[in-house]
Amino acid sequence: MSKIVLADDHLIVAQGIAGILQPEHEILAIAKNGEELVELVKKHKPELVITDISMPGMTGIAAIAALKRVKNDLKIICLTMHDEQEYAEGAMSAGALGYVLKHEATEDLLKAVESVLEGKKYISKSIQVDEAAPTLSARQLSVLRLLVQGKSAKQVAEELFISPRTVEFHKYTIMKLINAKTTADLIQYALAHGLVS
């Protein structure tokens, strides 16, 4: 039985989620926004967090990044109504392992919890996460998109909550993967694969 903290600004939704998860899992607490979620995680030390994305104040994605700084190995699932690829990629880049749509929660949530607790990724089937560049991870895609926008390694680092050295490492890895010699090659690749508009 795993210990879980939930976050959703609609209590009735959170109680519904708890109903799906119990009795197999223990719900330690329910947060109604990102700030409260971070505090409850510090207090209860759960193995898993299930959070909405759209909440008042700190969003779910900002909370994920904050939680990973508190406890790097924390397993996180986003449970949301946003079926857009950008949201899924943003959540995964911030550190979530699972991304489940609310209207598919009854079928998907328990499967997602099982996968994520084993350290595997789980994304609802109806979301098409960019497969145009299968060699690049969600984090590498985020770095690439920001670099293509003309941002410096320092700016990319600030936006993604990582160090400039990590940005440089990702850039170097991407260039090796796609056989790019210059930043111009990177930009060309990103445009050719529809990774940036």
Describe the structure.
- InterPro entries: CheY-like_superfamily, NreC/VraR/RcsB-like_REC, Sig_transdc_resp-reg_C-effctor, Sig_transdc_resp-reg_receiver, Tscrpt_reg_LuxR_C, WalR-like, WH-like_DNA-bd_sf.
- Residues 3-117 form the Response regulatory domain.
- This is Response regulator transcription factor.
- Keywords: DNA-binding, Phosphoprotein, Transcription, Transcription regulation.
- The modification 4-aspartylphosphate is found at residue 52.
- The chain starts with a strand and ends in a 5-residue tail after the last helix.
- Strands 2-1-3-4-5-6 form a six-stranded parallel sheet, with helices on both faces.
- It contains nine helices and six strands.
- The protein is an alpha/beta fold and 197 residues long.
- The chain has helices at 11-21, 34-44, 60-70, 85-94, 105-117, 138-148, 153-160, 164-177, 183-192, and strands spanning 3-7, 26-31, 48-51, 75-80, 98-101, 122-123.
- Strand 5 (98-101), helix 5 (105-117) and strand 6 (122-123) form a beta-alpha-beta unit.
- Helix 7 (153-160) crosses helix 8 (164-177).
- The chain has two domains: 3-123, Response regulator (Rossmann fold, 3-Layer(aba) Sandwich); 138-192, Orthogonal Bundle (Arc Repressor Mutant, subunit A).
